[in-house]
């Protein structure tokens, strides 16, 4: 009997797997044979054992949904989509949609990772530059002044420069420790919710989280409807796939309103996830039978807004760090040079 996998696939790996499975089915190959081909091709890869386990389950007569579920390596949303796809006979198209979905997920995670990484790298570089200044450069000037008969106590501005340098080093170390602690906290479910709630008080981050929630809502609705879900089933499915606790409540409000009124437009309005213009687009899409298409367009729109929001923050943070680095290094250099300039002027 195959063992359950301890390996969890990333969004990027899920996108690749879904794309390959979709191509296999599109080419007319049965999934029974296709998964055998994939398992053989990826035998030496990091998730080769996982594919081999799926292959074994399929050969035992399990459905694709059952085989994927048994491994415990796939997210709930993926499994739900596969289950309904098998029931409706839309497996190939749903796998293609899942591939696009996880590509977007992977791209968003990479954007967030880059947005966090670059400022931290700049801070680290700033610490190195200031450390070299304080530990290597300033002592040279101190020795020069001592040779000239000027004690360190007679150059208060030099002491200020040294103090600033050490203060910045300590501050950078504290920022690094805080970043590590925040990362550890973010990895815990409760900690993640605490950080997300705190981020709501920072307007640029709040706007990004709002756009991300609307993007996820739109993407899931579009995919679920195109996969064969009814409108009610789709709305019921939504809360568990929203990115934050607050957006989950909004999706739940949408579902509860829909159950009470049987009015999709009113349910969308009650969720407060979308701006009035987007609500009007959804209303028109509902009236014309193009709800899935409208939500696909909204998904692209909000994805672009998330990217722009992140880029905007990075475009502010990076130059700010560079400017601070320039000012601090310039200030330290000035504090070391001014006593020498004063001495030269007095000698002149």
Automatic annotation (TrEMBL):
What are the transmembrane regions?
A: 116-142, 162-186, 321-345
Can you give the residue ranges of the Type II secretion system protein GspF domain? 18-139, 217-339
* Compartments in which it is found: Cell membrane
Q: Which domain of life is it from?
A: Bacteria
Give the GO cellular component terms, alphabetically.
plasma membrane
PANTHER family xrefs: GENERAL SECRETION PATHWAY PROTEIN, TYPE II SECRETION SYSTEM PROTEIN F-RELATED
Q: What is this protein called?
A: Type II secretion system protein GspF domain-containing protein
């Amino acid at each position: 009997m195959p063992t359950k996998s301890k390996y969890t696939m990333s969004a990027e790996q899920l996108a690749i797997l879904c794309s390959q499975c979709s191509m296999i089915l599109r080419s007319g190959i049965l999934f029974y044979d296709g998964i055998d081909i994939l398992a053989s091709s990826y035998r030496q890869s990091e998730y080769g054992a996982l594919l081999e386990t799926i292959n074994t389950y399929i050969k035992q007569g399990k459905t694709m949904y059952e085989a994927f579920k048994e491994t415990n390596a796939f997210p709930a949303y993926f499994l739900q989509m596969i289950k309904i796809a098998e029931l409706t006979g839309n497996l190939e198209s749903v796998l293609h949609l899942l591939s696009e979905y996880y590509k977007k997920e992977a791209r968003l995670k990479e954007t967030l990772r880059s947005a966090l990484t670059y400022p931290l790298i700049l801070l680290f570089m700033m610490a190195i530059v200031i450390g070299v200044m304080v530990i290597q450069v300033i002592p040279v000037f101190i020795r020069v002044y001592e040779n000239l008969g000027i004690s360190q106590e007679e150059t208060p501005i030099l002491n200020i420069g040294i103090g600033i340098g050490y203060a910045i080093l300590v501050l950078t170390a504290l920022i690094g420790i805080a970043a590590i602690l925040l990362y550890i906290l973010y990895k815990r479910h409760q900690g993640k919710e605490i950080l997300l709630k705190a981020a709501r008080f920072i307007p640029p981050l709040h706007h990004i989280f709002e756009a991300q929630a609307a993007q996820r809502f739109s993407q899931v609705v579009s995919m679920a409807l195109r996969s064969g879900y009814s409108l009610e089933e789709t709305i019921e499915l939504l809360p568990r796939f929203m990115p934050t606790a607050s957006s989950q409540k909004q999706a739940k409000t949408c579902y509860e309103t829909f159950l009470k009124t049987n009015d999709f437009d009113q349910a969308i309005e009650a969720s407060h996830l979308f701006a009035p213009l987007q609500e009007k687009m959804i209303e028109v899409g509902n009236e014309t039978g193009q709800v899935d298409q409208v939500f696909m367009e909204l998904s692209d729109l909000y994805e672009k807004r998330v990217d722009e929001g992140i880029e905007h923050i990075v475009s502010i943070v990076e130059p700010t760090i560079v400017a601070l680095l320039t000012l601090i290094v310039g200030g330290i250099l000035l504090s070391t040079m001014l006593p020498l300039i004063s001495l030269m002027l007095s000698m002149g």
